[in-house]
Design goal:
heterodimer, A: 99 residues, alpha+beta, Alpha-Beta Plaits, 5-stranded antiparallel sheet, 3 helices, 26% strand, B: 439 residues, 2 domains, 11 helices, 16 strands, globular
């Protein structure tokens, strides 16, 4: 099953760092996401873009995960030459992950 | 003293829609309207305009927004706080006064300056991003410190109707009216942290009311065309309700609030602003009715001793060209076209980027999909000067008569690039200055 089936995500950018939230539609799925979606797994899944570390933050109060991906935006929005310089579409790349 | 105040956010970036702010002012029963219009690069571009013409350098949409809003703001007793001053808050103030005069409206405007620290940065210092000397990045065109609440608080105490700033941290635009209205001590970091969470939820306007959220079949959002922008009803204890004007489109739900709470946050335990280091991990979100989300919790610790400085530098030009192929074997013809252009340009460019839009342009080849019926070739190259960058698009256009069969819809672009690096500056070396004028 793809993450897309059970969760949604928004991408954000800060310099060359990409942030990806991962929010289950049903809060009961939060624990499952914690178990199945590790930082290592996300780094491997997005290895074509993410050249640095991936840090995972757990936010149990709002049943959400946050992945902070370093060196992920081709130098950052102001000097990037890729189509999607903000990396905004990458939220949906995360949701392609199979669990 | 008031127990609650209502703050609307009518714009979340420079190019945001203009009309939702008017709905907030006329129907939102708000005390303050915030228009957040300044991104990192926006101020560097504004600085360049100001260098060419000292009468410019403020937000390009300032006049259009003020023309529409100034009478309703006055009529509904709503005070405006905005960073549309960009690189030139004083000239922006004059423009606002001139519009008011023409419309026969008496107003008081306060401009907050002091963020421009170009004369105070040492270009031999290392940038936070590269770890190398700032001067190595390129010719520096701007350096603006992120100011906090101080200047806005002084402006509020002058009873100004309109407060116009340059570079100010986005949450500070919301924090200042809360502190002023509730008389919070500015060293009560728990309250400032809570308020910063609320400001962060609000600062992208429509992104918390269902904008940038919809996904048909998964996340249905009603009446997107008439998307309402958010209202924050904040209490003196630092809790708040995010909502919107009844009858507008969009929605305020736990889903929209969660996506926005985590947006662009690189460390939820320590969210740095000039006013506080806020903790987002202790925030609770609760549904409090239709299109109402209650925000409680959150906190903070003492503000940092330094301010972040955003430095803009000339980063050359980006040349781009695009052309579409469709029908049988479209992908192979597009690939061939890419190879041809690459061959023709490779002696003049260190590197070229070749994308097939519809196949691999934004998610690469990481996730396999079948070939599309039509595909758009895009080639991009960076160059130090404009004319070389333009050659990328010229070669794409030349594919009409010198490339594979069936190419159409060629377009060419050249963008000037302003890069951004950051450094820190001792906050004692940055003094906000407030200038007040009435008409």
């Amino acid at each position: 099953m793809k993450l897309y089936e059970i969760a949604h995500s928004r991408a954000g950018d800060k310099g060359n760092t990409l942030t990806l939230s991962l929010i289950p539609y049903n809060e009961e799925a939060y624990q499952r996401l914690c178990e199945k979606v590790s930082a290592e797994k996300v780094k491997k899944h997005l290895s074509e873009f993410v050249k640095g570390d991936v840090i995972r933050y757990e936010l149990p109060n709002i049943s959400s995960l946050l992945f902070v991906c370093e060196q992920a935006l081709s130098t950052g929005v102001t000097t990037s030459w890729v189509m999607d310089a903000h990396g905004k579409t990458l939220s949906y790349a995360l949701l392609e992950l199979e669990i | 003293m008031k127990e609650t105040i209502r703050i609307g956010c009518g714009a979340g970036f420079s190019g945001d829609r203009i009309e939702p702010a008017l709905v907030l002012v006329e129907k939102g029963s708000i005390d303050f309207l915030v228009l957040e219009c300044l991104a990192e690069r926006t101020i560097a571009l504004a600085q360049k305009r100001k260098l060419q013409d000292p009468a410019t350098g403020y937000d390009p949409l300032l006049e259009r927004r003020i023309e529409l809003l100034i009478e309703p703001l006055k009529k509904n007793k709503v005070r405006l706080i905005t960073n549309m001053g960009a690189a030139n808050p004083l000239m922006a103030m004059e423009k606002i006064l001139a519009i008011a005069k023409r419309k026969n409206i008496s107003i008081k405007v306060a401009a907050v300056t002091g963020d421009d620290v170009l004369d105070r940065i040492n270009q031999d210092d290392n940038s936070l991003e590269t770890g190398e000397a700032i001067r190595k990045a390129g010719i520096v065109v701007s350096a603006n410190a992120y100011l906090g609440i101080e200047g806005i608080l002084e402006a509020l105490s002058s009873d100004a109707d309109v407060i116009i700033t340059g570079r100010v941290a986005d949450p500070s635009l919301f924090l200042a009216p809360m502190i002023d209205s509730f008389q919070w001590p500015t060293d009560n970091y728990d309250l400032l942290g809570k308020a910063t969470v609320l400001g962060h939820l609000m600062e992208c306007a429509g992104q918390v009311t269902g904008g940038y959220y919809a996904d048909p079949g998964k996340k249905e959002v009603r009446n997107m065309a008439n998307l309402g922008h958010p209202i924050l009803e904040v209490s003196s204890d630092g809790s708040g309700i995010i909502t919107k004007v009844d009858g507008t489109g969009g929605e305020v739900t736990l889903g929209t609030a969660k996506e926005q709470l985590l947006y662009e946050v690189v460390n939820p335990f320590e969210y740095y602003t000039p006013d506080v280091i806020a903790d987002f991990t202790t925030v609770f979100l609760t549904k409090a009715g239709d299109n109402k989300v209650l925000v409680t919790g959150g906190g903070g610790k003492e503000k940092p001793g330094t301010l972040k400085v955003s430095i803009g530098y000339q980063a050359g030009y980006l040349g781009e060209g695009e052309i579409t192929y469709a029908g049988s074997n479209a992908v192979e013809r597009a690939k061939l076209a890419g190879e041809i252009v690459y061959e023709r340009l490779r002696d003049r460019f260190e590197e070229l980027r070749v994308d097939l839009i519809g196949l691999n342009s934004v998610h690469g080849s990481a996730f396999h999909h079948t070939d599309p019926y039509e595909v758009r070739l895009r080639i991009a190259g960076k160059a130090a000067d404009y004319s070389l960058a333009a050659q990328v698009g010229e070669e794409i256009e030349a594919l009409y008569t010198n490339g594979p069969g069936g190419g159409g819809g060629a377009r060419k672009y050249v963008h000037e690039m302003i890069g951004i690096v950051s450094t820190l500056i001792d906050r004692k070396r940055v003094k906000p200055l407030v200038t007040v004028k009435s008409i």
